[in-house]
Input
Amino acid sequence: MLHEKLFCYQKAMEVAKGLSQEMSYWPKGYGYLTDQIKRAISSCVLNISEGNTRVYPKERRRFFNTARGSIAEVSSGIDLAHVFRLISEAKAINYKNLCTEISKMLFVLR
Output
């Protein structure tokens, strides 16, 4: 599929895979945060995919803007995970940098 060739899609999948592994070690009391981050990264990936199929610029823009909002939510979830000491500062910085890259790529695509 064409969306799989987009760098923003590949990076979003990288974040999804990495955070999924990280979250599997979090205590059960943080399930709400795990669920929210999983929903947000899923939304980002799925909106990139759907937006890339749209022909009309206005439609594409809507999906890519939604994906940008979702990746911003993931970034905030990473901030919370760091504050709650669920993820190291180095890993948080790495994931947040990836989120920033994805957001910039989506801005260009829209």
Observations:
- The chain has a mean pLDDT of 96.
- The longest helix spans residues 57-83.
- DSSP finds four helices and no strands in the chain.
